[in-house]
TrEMBL record:
This is SUMO-activating enzyme subunit. InterPro entries: ThiF/MoeB/HesA, ThiF_NAD_FAD-bd, UAE_UbL_dom, Ub-E1_IAD_1, Ub_act_enz_dom_a_sf, Uba2, UBA_E1_SCCH, Ubiquitin-activating_enz. It comes from the Eukaryota. GO terms for cellular component: cytoplasm; SUMO activating enzyme complex.
Length: 656
């Protein structure tokens, strides 16, 4: 340590850390102990109780305070002379522009989402500052080095979309518990407590049956003077009873499938539910009651163990109680809620609804603990992996500062030693010549230029696919659209009018053969898009009526050919927990990282085994490349499957 602290590369270094969560806390500690004198930290979060088990710089008393600032204060207690500058902010904030990034010798990411990672990647490229990128999920982890022109950038390799499911599986023919969870979370929860204007496929589709949507839409509105308890039962009967009956009336759909069973509240629950544990009957809510703090349905009902699998009656009671608590105690949030795995009442509602639906479709029921894991795409964090990854980040950062290019390694942390190795170092890849980010390779967009509006293009392509926040769109020298605070009023009006025009009717028409230049002013990132006019699109397969190709984005692991719904985490792009432990092979399926977690698993050929690897393996190279692969979820449980040389059979392990 002493020798490190005197290393000139460290002594003069100014580094930027993005993210002060699981990896970030470990990283800041390791940087401080290694002698880094000037550290800037950006983190947009405040501390939550659930962070305390592994984000060891934080204590109970810090809950609610900004992570970046508390992390700094904790470090200064034992390294008072270090310069630590905290920013409680989103790294996408415009003040963190290219000039801001240029002041650093290296940027170190400890983030938990793809969006922020892509943003930092682009700023590092624009500012020409090396980036050390990282991520962990459970025991798996990864650290990669990205130096402009020398190694691949963060976006050179495909990042698969979060797992998604065909809409009809979710709405009509669930066969796994995860399908019920997605239905409860993305459709029912959103319909009842979220944005009412959002498209919602909640109602059961049934080919021959005349759509009951008229009836259905009314069903979700609480009627004037309707008691909240009665409303809950009506919703229950509608979604678990009526909708299933509608679905069943389409005989054709059930020829080769097990028929679901309609469930009505009167068959499961007695008319009068006993009040437990002193629960107030809030069905006749008063203003006083609406000021009660957020509550838990299971607590009201005296259900204590998260790991118990509740029966249909218990789930039904939790469902009704949770619905009531939302409407009475959290009325102000209703209409704006999105599912959040850290929102206890939301988890209770979703878990109960998913279980009732599972009961209807003959799918095994699950505990709230398991349901939460599936709904939140949770792979439980392992503090040790974060510590190892943080150490590896610092090792790579030092190599970057010393410009020791040949020594750069991407390192994968594995769950089980293979040939006695838990860490797999690999030489970095060269930049990918077809990368639209670092190689500026043009993209191609198929679109109906006579039907799609500029707004569709901006929302669905520029923002959603290209990850741009402050876009500017040009054809030749003509500006079609831009955002910014300093725009003149008539420009703002022009751009607003352009947004509503179809592409071919813009002042500078966009038609087949047009090259659109799209730029993000903050990221200083430009890409060219070659437009191809296409008349027809497949409603199911291409619902956006736009097909962008040339992106380094892998297809979703689920059937990518179907209109689908994701089981995306609320804030992250974490994979569902079905990531397999690598098998020794000649390929690596790279784990790129999503939350503090890993989100992508792409097959890629490894170059020669790095020297470091050879050393550890004592010469036996050929079998020592790792392959990490994501399985299709054949199981309802959150499982990790291992295919390991030392273990003959696949071994399933439930996540703890
Ligand atoms: N755009 C962003 N700007 C700044 N900080 C970000 C951004 N996106 C994510 N972060 C930060 O990255 C950190 C990631 O840490 P981590 O993966 O441990 O997540 P967490 O939110 O602390 O924990 P968990 O998700 O498990 O509850 C978080 O502290 C989060 O605030
Ligand atoms: Zn690239």
């Amino acid at each position: 340590m002493a020798s490190l602290q005197h290393s000139p590369s460290i002594k003069d270094a100014k580094v930027l850390m993005v993210g002060a969560g699981g990896i970030g806390c470990e990283l800041l500690k390791t940087l401080a102990l290694s002698g880094f004198p000037d550290i800037h930290i950006i983190d947009m979060d405040t501390i939550e109780v659930s962070n305390l088990n592994r984000q060891f710089l934080f204590r109970q008393s810090h809950v609610g305070q900004p992570k970046a600032k508390v992390a700094r204060d904790a470090i200064l207690k034992f390294r008072p002379h270090i310069n630590i500058t905290p920013y409680h902010a989103n790294v996408k904030d415009p003040s963190f522009n290219v000039d801001f990034f240029k002041q650093f010798n290296v940027v170190l990411n400890g983030l938990d989402n793809l969006d922020a990672r892509r943003h930092v990647n682009r700023l590092c490229l624009a500012a020409d500052v090396p980036l050390v990128e990282s991520g962990t999920t459970g025991f798996l982890g990864q650290v990669t080095v990205h130096v402009k022109g020398k190694t691949e950038c963060y976006e050179c390799q495909p990042k698969p979309a979060p797992k998604s499911y065909p809409v009809c599986t979710i709405t009509s023919t669930p066969s796994k518990f995860v399908h019920c969870i997605v239905w409860a979370k993305d459709l029912l929860f959103t319909k009842l407590f979220g944005d009412k204007n959002q498209d919602n496929d909640l109602n059961v589709r049934s080919g021959d049956v005349a759509s009951s949507s008229e009836h259905a839409d009314d069903a979700f509105e609480q009627r004037k003077d309707e008691d909240v308890g009665d409303y809950g039962r009506r919703i229950y009967d509608h979604v678990f009873g009526h909708n299933i009956e509608v679905a069943l009336s389409n005989e054709e759909a059930w020829k080769n499938r097990n028929k679901p069973r309609p469930i009505y509240s009167k068959d499961v629950l007695s008319d009068r539910l006993p009040q437990q544990n002193g629960t107030v009957d809030r069905s006749s809510a008063t203003d006083n009651l609406s000021s009660l703090p957020a509550v838990s349905a299971m607590a009201s009902l005296g259900l204590k163990n998260l790991q118990d699998v509740w029966n249909l009656m218990e789930n039904s009671r939790v469902f009704l109680e949770a619905l009531k608590l939302f409407l009475v105690n959290r009325a102000q949030e209703v209409g704006n809620l999105t599912f959040d795995k850290d929102d206890q009442l939301a988890v209770e509602f979703v878990s109960a609804a998913a279980n009732i639906r599972a009961a209807s479709f003959g799918i095994p029921l699950h505990s709230l603990f398991e349901a939460k894991g599936i709904a939140g795409n949770i792979v439980h964090a392992v503090a040790t992996t974060n510590a190892i990854v943080a150490g590896l980040i610092v090792i790579e950062a030092i190599k970057v500062l010393e410009k020791n290019t040949d020594a750069y390694r991407m390192t994968y942390c594995l769950e089980h030693p293979s040939k006695k190795m838990l860490l797999m170092p690999v030489e970095p890849f060269e930049p990918n010549k077809s990368c639209y980010v670092c190689f500026k390779t043009p993209l191609t967009l198929e679109i109906n230029t006579r039907r799609s509006r500029l707004r569709d293009f901006v929302e669905k392509i520029v923002k959603a696919k290209l990850g741009m926040s402050y876009p500017l769109i040009m054809v030749g020298h003509a500006l079609l659209y831009e955002v910014g605070d300093d725009l003149e009023e008539d420009m703002v009006k022009n751009y607003a009018a352009n947004l509503e025009k179809v592409l071919s009717e813009l002042p500078s028409p966009v038609t087949g053969g047009t090259i659109l230049q799209v730029e993000d002013l903050q990221q200083e990132f430009t890409c060219n898009i070659s437009v191809k006019h296409r008349e027809e699109f497949d409603e199911e397969k291409e619902p956006d009526e736009m097909v962008l190709s040339g992106l380094t984005e892998a297809p979703s692991m689920a059937k990518a050919d179907d209109h689908s719904i994701e089981n995306g985490g609320s804030t992250s792009n974490a994979l569902p927990a079905n990531v397999t432990e690598p098998k020794m092979d000649v390929e690596v399926e790279e784990i790129s990282v999503g939350t503090e977690n890993i989100y992508s698993a792409q097959k890629r050929k490894l170059p020669e085994v790095s020297h470091a690897t050879k050393d550890v393996v004592s010469g036996d190279e050929t079998r020592n490349h790792k392959r990490v692969q994501k399985l299709d979820d054949e199981d309802d449980d959150v499982v990790v499957m291992f295919d390991h040389p030392e273990v003959d059979n696949h071994k399933k392990q439930r996540l703890q």
